Automatic annotation (TrEMBL):
This is Lon N-terminal domain-containing protein. GO terms for biological process: protein catabolic process. It comes from Amphiprion ocellaris. Residues 13-169 form the Lon N-terminal domain. It comes from the Eukaryota. GO terms for molecular function: ATP binding; ATP-dependent peptidase activity; serine-type endopeptidase activity.
Length: 169
């Protein structure tokens, strides 16, 4: 799971098809799971998994309403986000469903679909590096960050001047 270039996601990921939104790297989103495919993914991978690797899944937007999940696999987007399931909550009322809290790790591209049932499993290629999780955080934006970095530096300097001038009044 690790390499010289940082953390690597598995080359095969189960895919969570969602119509509720888009998961981005670094964000944490709560997803409701009720379709048969996604329910199988949760019960077979997330609840029975014994390693951290088993909690990494791919999240891909799906335009089809999951209430009408048929045997036909909808046309999938080719780009998704790998995420780690940090919380799984299940309920049987009013009907069986799960709620997942997923934190996005990095973007991936779907190379090929390996299977469609009981849940979608795909061969994926990692697009982003996960260096932000393996290197220490910087002390803020720098001038090398372009216009945003320059504005951040100016804002910081102005804030320091205001604090210093208020202290000596």
């Amino acid at each position: 799971m690790t390499s010289a270039g940082g953390i690597q996601i598995p080359s095969r990921l189960p895919l969570l098809l969602t119509h509720e939104g888009v998961l981005l790297p670094g964000s944490t989103v709560r997803f409701s799971v009720g379709s048969p495919r996604n329910m199988q993914l949760v019960s077979q991978r997330l609840l029975k998994g014994t390693s951290l690797k088993s909690t990494i899944i791919g999240v891909i937007p799906n335009t089809r309403d999951p209430e009408h999940d048929t045997d036909d696999l909808p046309t999938l987007h080719k780009i998704g986000t790998a995420g780690i399931a940090v919380q799984v909550v299940g309920s049987n009322w009013p009907k069986p469903h799960y709620t997942l809290l997923i934190t996005g790790l990095c973007r991936f591209s779907v190379s090929s679909l390996l299977k469609e049932r009981p849940f979608v499993l795909a061969e994926v290629e990692q697009l982003d590096k996960l260096e932000q999780y393996t290197t220490p955080a910087t002390s803020g934006a720098s001038a090398e960050d372009g216009e945003l970095g320059e504005l951040s530096q100016k804002f910081y300097q102005a804030a320091v001047q205001v604090c210093v001038s208020d202290r000596y009044r």
